[in-house]
Specification:
By secondary structure, the protein is of the alpha+beta class. The protein has one domain. The protein contains nine helices and twelve strands. Strands 3, 4, 5, 6, 10, 11 and 12 form a seven-stranded antiparallel sheet that branches. It has a five-stranded antiparallel sheet with strand order 1-2-9-8-7. β7 and β8 form a beta hairpin. α6 crosses α9. It is globular and about 65 Å long.
């Protein structure tokens, strides 16, 4: 379910559980980039941010190698970081909800202050920030996706049901002036990742997020990874630097993807992604570089998720801003890519939009549902099989 409940640690502390990351040029303010980090799946009214966690956006410049079609980008070492922290909530003397103040430290160490749930947000130094409770913009028929992996056949229906209908999350929205905040960066392509880390002198990464469904679908245990059959790699993966995987478990991540990606490729009964002679899947290295890639020089495009990555694989020039917008149907895009490589009809989960579509102006996400459902939308992501010997 995108990145909701993506591992035992996230389940234990929802205040550090990243659910989604978005990066797109502002549709209403040319020259501005919008970054959105969502946290706390199924948040209730009154939910607030942890005062013991730092919430970070990380950006690095990206260049495309001149060596022709390939599955990787060259990521620069210079980094632009925006770190949001939150104070201990203040309980009012009279009736009313607790008040929480936030601060975002920009890459040049300038600070932007804001108050949680203030619709106007904070403004300073070319940046505008909102933080607070909003309606979850992610949409997906989760039970049918789990059934697809459990039965090893495409179980989506023409008319699906949005599992996240009416549920809320906490969101941090940053709209930044590209020239002011990123002006010295070479080029217009950026890799974008989000992470939660413990506050203090020795920060520890709790979770990181780039593309949706890397952990809960692509790195899930589907009974086909014979190398790491009993290993839930998600907590290990969450502790990795988004831009530099450590060698310790890199083999485990590769083995999981090299097993799972052919599993998805076979769901339509044909092979669209032939493996290399060593058994590597053509998408493995691309997906291990787990960050959004956005072109800030391109105008806003609602459906552009993975377009820059697909262009790189095909050896063509990308046509859109890439990244990920709030209304983009990323599940259809992902499944069409991994199942058909774009060589067949769209593989759709039958859910085309969220409960309420996101707007095209700040703070972009729809207001929270005042009466969210009592049910917990979390559904186990490890499929159960009658036969565990693999496909």
């Amino acid at each position: 379910m995108s990145d909701h409940f993506s591992g035992p640690r996230a389940l234990a502390d929802p205040a550090c559980d990243l659910t989604d990351l978005y990066a797109f040029p502002s549709p209403s303010r040319p020259g501005h980039l919008v970054l959105v980090m969502n946290i706390f799946p199924n948040a209730r009214l009154g939910a607030l941010f942890s005062d013991a966690v730092s919430y970070r956006f990380r950006l690095r410049s990206v260049t495309i190698p001149a060596s022709g079609p390939g599955s990787h980008f060259d990521v620069g070492t210079d980094e632009y970081t925006l770190t949001c922290t939150f104070a201990v909530p203040v309980v009012p003397d009279g009736p009313g909800q607790s008040v929480q103040e936030g601060t975002c430290i920009l890459t040049n160490r300038e600070a932007v202050s804001f108050r949680v749930n203030d619709e106007q947000g904070g403004h300073a130094h070319g940046v505008r920030i909102f933080a607070g409770l909003r309606l979850d913009p992610f949409f997906m028929d989760v039970p049918r996706e789990v059934e697809t992996r459990a039965t090893r056949r495409i179980a989506f229906q023409a008319k699906g049901t949005n599992t996240l209908d009416g549920v809320n999350i906490l969101s941090i929205v940053v709209e930044l002036d590209v020239t002011t905040v990123l002006g010295r960066a070479p080029g217009t392509l950026f890799a974008v990742a989000a992470e939660t880390v413990t506050s203090g002198k020795l920060p520890m990464r709790l979770e990181r997020l780039g593309r949706p469904e890397v952990k809960n679908i692509l790195l899930s245990q589907n009974g086909v990874d014979t190398v790491n059959r009993d290993l839930d790699v998600r907590d290990l993966y969450n502790q990795e630097d988004p831009f530099q995987l450590a060698p310790d478990y890199l083999g485990a991540y590769r083995a999981r993807l090299n097993a799972n990606l052919p599993f998805f490729d076979r769901l339509d009964g044909k092979i669209d992604w032939p493996l290399s002679t060593d058994g590597a899947h053509p998408l493995t290295e691309l997906l291990l570089a787990d960050f959004l890639v956005v072109d800030v020089a391109k105008p806003y495009a609602e459906e552009s998720y993975l377009e820059i990555e697909r262009a790189r694989l095909e050896g063509r020039t990308h046509a859109t801003c890439g990244g990920r917008s709030l209304n983009d149907d990323v599940i259809d895009t992902l499944f069409t890519l991994i199942v058909t490589a774009g060589h067949g009809p769209c593989v759709s989960d039958g859910v085309d939009q969220a409960t309420v579509r996101a707007s095209q102006s700040f703070p972009y996400l729809a207001p929270p549902n005042p009466n969210p459902p009592d049910r917990d939308p979390g559904i186990p992501t490890a499929a159960t099989h009658e036969h565990e010997e693999g496909c």
